[in-house]
Amino acid sequence: MPLLRKINRGLLILLVLVAFALLYNKTRLQTLPKYPVLKKEEADTGAKDEKEVETDVPVLICASEERIGASMTVINSVYSNSQARVFFYIVTLRDAIKKIREYIEKTKLRNIRYKILEFNPMVLKGKVHPDSSRPELLHPLNFVRFYLPLLAIENHKRIVYLDDDVIVQGDIQELYNIKLKEGHAAAFASDCDLPDTHEMVRSVGMQTTYMGFLDYRKEEVRELGINPSECSFNPGVFVADVGEWQRQKITKQLEKWMAKNFRENLYSSAVAGGVATPPMLIVFHDKFTTIDPLWHIRHLGWSPDTRYPKTFLKKAKLLHWNGQFKPWDYPCVHLDLWEKWYIPDPTGKFTLVRPRLKNP
């Protein structure tokens, strides 16, 4: 009998070990592979050949091949309106690196200080569904903002992120110097912060609440406890505290919600569309500092007909053509304000779409 008990105990231990091994293999197979965020770093720092330093105002902008002229317009507006030492991080994909360098070196931008970083789109594998009504919102560069601390910007305590459909009319140092509240990793503009824009927003049916971005039919979304009528924010312009971002593991939190949406479709079919904004709204809910509303006047791209008063736009520090109607395309409103900073592509590949003038 004692021998039989030992044999049974041994078989039981063996069965437990086998069960753990199977569970481990199953878990390991379900784990997403790790990829580096940057494929390579272009140590291209402009005509002055100066490296970035801690006293710089770092600005991160993405530049896709098809919208390269838009990104150069942003850079020109920032550079032309700032008295600070600005250092630009230009994040792109491999096919655009040579074109970006050529655009800069053959225009007035040759004097900017910059570094080109190549983003690795494989980092998004298993995290993004190709199911948006606006495919441009699924471009890999639209997710670069999730990976700020991993983008070779370790020389800076904070960084300014700008979408490629903005222009800056104020000194970017003012935005950069915003005082972040304790424990906040970023500062955004609330979608309900500027009364002057409310009438225009309502007239074009713009989404300004969480209901427009999250699918509240899903139990996991309801369990977040976020009021669907609560004001959202736009992550196309923000200031990030790199150290606080790392301490709170913001990137991992964002990736968690990307993976959840990939499996459960928590927000892909929401009214506002797109899959880059909802993870930011979830992770930063009630945990962000509010920037001066004039530093993010948005919705200029939501209607080809609805305009802001000129006096109001003149006061704005930053204009954002978020929406489908972009200022390099046509139709679009307030084109003159954007074209003021546009620099033609020296290769002629990026061109503006404008109506043909009728012959008299």
From TrEMBL:
Cell compartments where the protein resides: Membrane
GO terms of molecular function: UDP-glycosyltransferase activity
Bilayer topology term: Single-pass type II membrane protein
UniProt keyword Transmembrane helix present: yes
Keyword terms, alphabetized: Glycoprotein, Glycosyltransferase, Membrane, Signal-anchor, Transferase, Transmembrane, Transmembrane helix
Main location: membrane
Family membership noted in the UniProt record: Belongs to the glycosyltransferase 8 family.
Keyword Mitochondrion appears in the UniProt entry: no
Name of the protein this chain belongs to: Glycosyltransferase 8 domain-containing protein 2
PANTHER family documented for this protein: GLYCOSYLTRANSFERASE 8 DOMAIN-CONTAINING PROTEIN, GLYCOSYLTRANSFERASE 8 DOMAIN-CONTAINING PROTEIN 2
GO cellular component: Golgi apparatus; membrane
Superkingdom of the source species: Eukaryota
